[in-house]
Amino acid sequence: MQKPLLLTALLTVVTITGARAEPSDPPVTVFASVLPIQTFVERVGGDRVDARVMVQPGQSPATYDPTTGQVAALAKADLYVRIGVPFEDAWMTRIRSASTDMAILDLRAGLPLREIEAHEHHEGTDDPDGAHDSEHGHDTEPEVQAHSEGMDPHIWTSPPLVRRMTVAIRDRLSALDPAGAETYAANQAAFDAELAALHTDLKAILADLEQHRFLVYHPAWGYFADTYGLEQVPIEREGKSPGPRRLDALIKQALQSDARIIFVQPQFDRRAAQQIARAIGGRVETADPLAADYAENLRRFARLIAAAHSRGHDAVQP
């Protein structure tokens, strides 16, 4: 009769001292507009957050239409994190109407925005090496919308800006889930250290460039360029492929600046880029700013630029 009692006692001890119990509360459900933002939410939220993404891999934020299932799921979501990509302009009213109780965090709030059609070099962040704690506790989307017409939404391509964005994510998650505030703060601090290291790595990779201009089909790398002293030259304008006159001007510009590499997102047509590459003796490379593997994706992008533009041209291999 003692063995069953002993077994019961041992099982009780294992239950108490074993693996961490699952949280009793359901996770905070968060929808992000694009994959990199989902990654940031996951890194800050950890196990306390169920992070989902609107734009699926391989699809373009410019033409994306949310599915019926996504709209239905939004009705049960706690938070939507927006970034200002084109589909949101058309869908934001319906996203809001899916759940009047759902909070909305616009990550552009408080950040220095740049014009999307950056054919000339624009100034980037006022503090490219800093990561300032901003007050994002309230939904400032109306103010953001008021000054974001025609502005570049690809702010996640600059790690220093992402450091500020993770503070906004931390604060909003803590407001929605106060019991998890300590977890969110610890996760954000750990991720912030990784972002600081990434920024240092990227500066080192791009430190010895012979020239600083690179061609892109779609101007999605402007914040990256501004942060690291580069200039992107977009092939398309306002979503349109270049005509013969524009194509000729781009070829001459590339030859004059000795640009040797053209980046194309997998969501876009490569033909115009390939035509320019043939004319300048360069090459076309795929670079996706929407990739989920954020840090490694930016390191690869920097290495490709360095391999093409460093003194000696082969100093860094992608």
Question: Can you give a write-up of this model?
Answer:
With 318 residues, this protein is of the alpha/beta class. The protein folds into two domains: 28-114 and 143-203, Nitrogenase molybdenum iron protein domain (Rossmann fold, 3-Layer(aba) Sandwich), CATH 3.40.50.1980; 207-309, Rossmann fold. The protein has helices at 2-17, 35-45, 68-74, 86-98, 141-146, 159-176, 181-205, 222-227, 244-257, 271-280, 294-309; strands at residues 28-32, 49-53, 79-82, 103-106, 213-216, 231-234, 261-264, 283-286. The strands form two sheets. A four-stranded parallel beta sheet has the order 2-1-3-4, with helices on one face. Strands 6-5-7-8 form a four-stranded parallel beta sheet, sandwiched between helices. α8 (222-227) links the parallel β5 and β6 (231-234). The longest helix has 25 residues, at 181-205. Residues 1-22, 118-143 and 314-318 have low confidence and may be disordered.
**Main pleated-sheet profile:** 4 strands, parallel
Oligomer: single chain
Could you spell the SSE succession in H and E letters? HEHEHEHEHHHEHEHEHEH
What Rg do the Cα atoms give? Answer: 23 Å
Strands in their spatial order, largest beta sheet: 2-1-3-4
Distance between the termini: 69 Å
Tell me, what is the CATH class of the largest domain?
A: Alpha Beta
The unreliable regions are: 1-22, 118-143, 314-318
Structural class: alpha/beta
Q: Name the CATH superfamily assignment of the largest domain.
A: Nitrogenase molybdenum iron protein domain
Strand content: 5-15%
Average pLDDT, rounded to a whole number, is 80
Shape: globular
- CATH structural architecture of the largest domain: 3-Layer(aba) Sandwich
What portion of residues is helical? 40-55%
Q: Per CATH, what is the topology of the largest domain? A: Rossmann fold
How many strand segments?
Answer: 8
Number of domains: 2
Number of helices: 11
